[in-house]
Write a structure and sequence with these properties.
27% helix; single chain; alpha+beta; 4 strands; 3 helices; 118 residues; 2 domains; four-stranded mixed β-sheet
């Protein structure tokens, strides 16, 4: 397994770059099934760790004649950390609570995939 890490997402000693074994197998199965060489995996951000850059690794599929499959993983801003310390009394509109998170999520996805057409 060869990899090139572009972020602080995972332990440098981890050859999977922080991507779970199950997720790797699933992404490889998708790549083989749909005959693609690049897979993008989205993870939600966590309370303890956020990631701006991507994590990337390349796997050579020995059963497919050495074909290389690149898996890129991104954390998406799902958690609104400001809510953890906010006074939520009197707030009844969830759209208002998560407006910033929604904007951040759209910005992140557009940065990865390109502008979203609404």
């Amino acid at each position: 397994m060869e990899g090139s890490d572009r972020s602080e997402y995972a332990d440098e000693q981890d050859p999977k770059k922080g991507i779970s074994q199950n997720d790797l197998y699933q992404m490889l199965a998708y790549a083989v099934r749909f005959e693609v060489d690049e897979i993008i995996l989205f993870y939600p951000n966590t309370l303890c760790q956020g990631q701006e850059a991507q994590t990337e690794l390349t796997i050579k599929d020995a059963l497919a004649g050495g074909r290389e499959i690149t898996i890129r993983a991104f954390q998406l801003p799902i958690i609104e950390r400001g809510l953890l310390s906010a006074d939520l009394c009197g707030v009844t509109d969830l759209r208002e609570l998560f407006a910033k998170t929604r904007r951040e999520l759209i910005r992140k996805i557009e940065g990865i995939l390109g502008p979203v057409v609404a």
